[in-house]
Amino acid sequence: MIEVLHNPRCGKSRTCLAFLGEKKIDYTVIKYLDNPLRINEIETLLKKLNLKPLDLVRQKENIWIEKFKGKNLSDKAIIEALSQFPILIERPIIIGKNHAVIARDLSKSEDLFNKLLGNLS
């Protein structure tokens, strides 16, 4: 089963759910703002995404700018920030058993997304 890290207030996140619905792909929604990911869950997600912690950060968010921008943070500190302030996590993220993908540019790269979706199992 595919999981989607979803923020209902985010247009790109809603578009992603609509896309999955159109493709008749079953998924489970994770409202990560209501139930923040624990540190070990973020670490697992980063492995599935094959990204460094900073690559998962929404660096234009006010919280990032006010509290973290310009600081020399370790990967551990960034992961802790993502856990403490889940709004900083890029979205939407589609998560499969072994792989995950940030699906922000779905409308521009549907072919690429479909290939990735095939690898999410």
Descriptive account of the structure:
The chain has 121 residues and is an alpha+beta fold. Helices cover 40% and strands 12% of the residues. The protein has helices spanning 11-22, 39-49, 62-67, 75-84, 110-118; strands at 2-5, 27-30, 93-95, 100-102. The radius of gyration is 14 Å and the shape is globular. It starts with a strand and ends with a helix.
- Spatial order of the strands forming the largest sheet: 2-1-3-4
| Biggest beta sheet attributes | 4 strands, mixed
Strand tally is 4
Looking at how many chains there are and whether they match, the oligomeric state comes to: single chain
Helix content: 25-40%
N→C terminal distance: 8 Å
Dominant shape: globular
Q: What is the arithmetic mean of pLDDT?
A: 89
Structural class: alpha+beta
The low-pLDDT segments are: none
Rg, alpha carbons:
14 Å
- Count of helices? 5
Q: What characteristics describe this protein?
A:
121 residues; alpha+beta; globular; 4 strands; 4-stranded mixed sheet; 5 helices; single chain
Q: Would you spell out the secondary-structure blueprint of this structure?
A:
Blueprint: E1 2-5, H1 11-22, E2 27-30, H2 39-49, H3 62-67, H4 75-84, E3 93-95, E4 100-102, H5 110-118
Parallel strand pairs: 1-2
Antiparallel strand pairs: 1-3, 3-4
Give a quick rundown of the structure.
With 121 residues, this protein is of the alpha+beta class. It contains 5 helices and 4 strands.
